[in-house]
Amino acid sequence: MDFFLLFQPLLIFLFATLLFYLAVQVPKGCYRLVCGSLHVIFAAVSIQFHPDIIALYPGITVPFVIGFTVHTTSILLTGWHVLDSDSNSSLHRFKEISRTWSNIRHLELGHDAACNSMPRERLLFAIRRGVVALFSWIINYVISIIFPQILLKIGVRIQDFAPDKQGILLHLTWHDLFLRALISLHWIWTTYYALNCWHIIYAIAFVAIFRRDRPSEWPPLFGSLFEAFTLRRFWGIFWHRLHIAPFKDLTPAFLQKFPVLRAFWIFLLSAACHTLSNWIIYHTNTAKEDFWFFSTAYAICLVETLSSKAFLATMREIDSGYLMINRVGPFLGYAWVLTFFVYAIGRWQYPLVYKSLGG
């Protein structure tokens, strides 16, 4: 394969990043609008190559480009970060803009001068994160061996993902339930592994190697799994929140006043990003499935929020009941979250799996 053709997506994405570098240095205006528009266009072009070329890049490449383009677009449209190109040296501007570019969660960043100290803290940070990445790699390696063997042992066929298996209120056999649980857990793990490991790589690079950032500026991407005993806590505490800040910036003004609608808007934008990613990678329109899944997840989170307050208030009136729910509640909650994914995964992911297998 022609090496120039292979590196074309990377070169185009770097050019799109250069356009962001130029646009973010000026206030809102025609120049910023033109550079920002071209930035979005070239970022989109960078992932519109033949699937055989995109497949040579890491699997997270397309979601990475989409996520960062949403982030940079939110900055350019809202004027969230504007640098005065006349007041700083070129090197200082480059550092500040690169920190803005990589700060997709819009975390509060410290002063650049503070990043040159703390050699011991940087080393410990790199060791701790490196150990986490190593253990994650070992677990993923074991899963990559065991998972296909389990699928073979239980006799998985393409018909298990066929349209008559993609509904919710179906008569599911133990085979169907077990397969859905496997697919659900595998999706959660692979997403966690890919995002977390790449986040660790960037964190070690920018904190310990380039010493551009402080350890506190790269907090863990995911929360504790032990906190995910409701669907709301799964999305709000355990799951990554990479997209929350950019999506908030892209929320229409009339929705900002209503937290319930603002949260729904964020779920809808998440669905749109998943649909775009699947369209680019698999050339499959999954809009119906994605918007159904994220709308359903939002609705259940809303019901959990409204019902939990009344439920806990009732349990507090019964001391023994409140004590029991504190002990047993989390375990029931984990089962509830897994049950949601088991029943939702068929309608959400099975159509894509079925088509990918040639169905």
From TrEMBL:
Domain Wax synthase, residue spans: 218-294
Major site of localization recorded for this protein: membrane
Membrane-spanning parts: 6-24, 31-49, 55-83, 130-151, 187-210, 263-281, 293-312, 324-346
Membrane topology: Multi-pass membrane protein
Domain of life (superkingdom): Eukaryota
UniProt-recorded name of the protein: Wax synthase domain-containing protein
GO CC, alphabetical: membrane
Keywords tagged on the record: Membrane, Transmembrane, Transmembrane helix
Compartment(s) where it occurs, according to its Swiss-Prot or TrEMBL record: Membrane
